[in-house]
Amino acid sequence: MKTLRLGLLGFGNAGRAFAKILEEKKQEIQGSMECDIIVTGITTGSRGSLYNPEGIDLKKAWSELEKAGHFDKDGKNYCEMTSLEFVEKGEYDVIVEMTPLDIFTGQPATDHLRRAMERGKHAVSANKGPIAWHYKDLKELAEKMKVQFYYETTVMDGTPIFNLKDETLKFCKVTEVNGILNTTTNYVLEELATGKAYDDVIEEGKRIGFVEADPSMDIEGWDAAAKVTALLNVLMEADITPKEVDRTGIENITLKDIQKAESQGKVIKLLCTGTRTDGKVKASVKPTLVEKGSLLSVISGTSSVLQITTDLMGKLTIIEHDPELLQTGYGVFSDVLRIVRNLV
Ligand SMILES: NC(=O)c1ccc[n+]([C@@H]2O[C@H](COP(=O)([O-])OP(=O)(O)OC[C@H]3O[C@@H](n4cnc5c(N)ncnc54)[C@H](OP(=O)(O)O)[C@@H]3O)[C@@H](O)[C@H]2O)c1
């Protein structure tokens, strides 16, 4: 039986969702893949860290955080190691980057991944910042160091997008991408359509958890821009950053605009697109009129949709329906399984 040692950077919603799947499937993986996956380190921003090269008790780790909001300072694996210290000195085979997104720089997540790969470690990122800002460099580093680097959950959680392209659509060239990738703006546009005032929609959205405390990254289209950049960098080798996306948010959309669209048999959606013109990939995020009844028009609430056009397989549409944290955790889990499968 082989052993694969993971280091988890960040143990919030995504980190714990992943840890729970890993724990639940541990025996099945041992049985079918002859691999024991253990976690040797977990770091957080302010809740302490855990380190044990022999393996950490994951159930105990998430219970402590969920009950006390902090790892037990008297626990035998407790330490104050920072993420970068763990990345540079810890014992592990795969770094799993699940720290918060910095949408304008992709840091410090990019440095975590870079330093780990420079040490010859495999890398998985749930954080889309590095894929939106530094994908080409990171990919080249992974190739140079002969390590595996995956990032499935960065766009549409565990829904297979990058896996689909890599594993199932071999030799298909992606020529165009369209999608509705930001769910907050879906929600806000739908609620505005019922006649509610913008401020009331935002406040209610915050209360029920559909809108972030600071909604500007979603409303102004930055989150969608980071997602479409990540997609285009990977699927179309775009080598662009979110700054190069032609971006318009939904902050100026009014009930009048929505009603006008309705009268033309259309709905307004924040559409992400990527096309190649004269060899250069162009990306945009814009409120767009889409035909009522079309696949794009029926995507609502927390669901998202991606259409990819390819040379050999035409246009494919992938919908993620009402995702929960389980699907976020699964995306990370599927990347780790890919690493196990490809171990020599
Ligand atoms: N949640 C989702 O549905 C989802 C879906 C796809 C992708 N993602 C991505 O996954 C990542 C994590 O998201 P999340 O929802 O789990 O966020 P979260 O619940 O806010 O958790 C973030 C975790 O990272 C820790 N952290 C902060 N700074 C750190 C640092 N420098 N080193 C190590 N840990 C650090 C936090 O610790 P403290 O609490 O102590 O600060 C916390 O444990 C983000 O990049 C996000 O974009 C999330």
From TrEMBL:
<feature type="active site" description="Proton donor">
    <location>
        <position position="227"/>
    </location>
</feature>
<keyword id="KW-0486">Methionine biosynthesis</keyword>
<dbReference type="InterPro" id="IPR001342">
    <property type="entry name" value="HDH_cat"/>
</dbReference>
<keyword id="KW-0028">Amino-acid biosynthesis</keyword>
<keyword id="KW-0521">NADP</keyword>
<dbReference type="InterPro" id="IPR005106">
    <property type="entry name" value="Asp/hSer_DH_NAD-bd"/>
</dbReference>
<dbReference type="GO" id="GO:0050661">
    <property type="term" value="F:NADP binding"/>
</dbReference>
<keyword id="KW-0560">Oxidoreductase</keyword>
<dbReference type="Pfam" id="PF00742">
    <property type="entry name" value="Homoserine_dh"/>
</dbReference>
<feature type="binding site">
    <location>
        <position position="128"/>
    </location>
    <ligand>
        <name>NADPH</name>
    </ligand>
</feature>
<comment type="pathway">
    <text>Amino-acid biosynthesis; L-methionine biosynthesis via de novo pathway; L-homoserine from L-aspartate: step 3/3.</text>
</comment>
<keyword id="KW-0791">Threonine biosynthesis</keyword>
<dbReference type="Pfam" id="PF03447">
    <property type="entry name" value="NAD_binding_3"/>
</dbReference>
<dbReference type="InterPro" id="IPR036291">
    <property type="entry name" value="NAD(P)-bd_dom_sf"/>
</dbReference>
<dbReference type="GO" id="GO:0009086">
    <property type="term" value="P:methionine biosynthetic process"/>
</dbReference>
<comment type="similarity">
    <text>Belongs to the homoserine dehydrogenase family.</text>
</comment>
<dbReference type="InterPro" id="IPR022697">
    <property type="entry name" value="HDH_short"/>
</dbReference>
<dbReference type="GO" id="GO:0009088">
    <property type="term" value="P:threonine biosynthetic process"/>
</dbReference>
<feature type="domain" description="Aspartate/homoserine dehydrogenase NAD-binding">
    <location>
        <begin position="10"/>
        <end position="152"/>
    </location>
</feature>
<keyword id="KW-0915">Sodium</keyword>
<feature type="binding site">
    <location>
        <position position="212"/>
    </location>
    <ligand>
        <name>L-homoserine</name>
    </ligand>
</feature>
<dbReference type="GO" id="GO:0004412">
    <property type="term" value="F:homoserine dehydrogenase activity"/>
</dbReference>
<comment type="pathway">
    <text>Amino-acid biosynthesis; L-threonine biosynthesis; L-threonine from L-aspartate: step 3/5.</text>
</comment>
<feature type="domain" description="Homoserine dehydrogenase catalytic">
    <location>
        <begin position="160"/>
        <end position="337"/>
    </location>
</feature>
<protein>
    <recommendedName>
        <fullName>Homoserine dehydrogenase</fullName>
        <ecNumber>1.1.1.3</ecNumber>
    </recommendedName>
</protein>
<feature type="binding site">
    <location>
        <begin position="10"/>
        <end position="15"/>
    </location>
    <ligand>
        <name>NADP(+)</name>
    </ligand>
</feature>
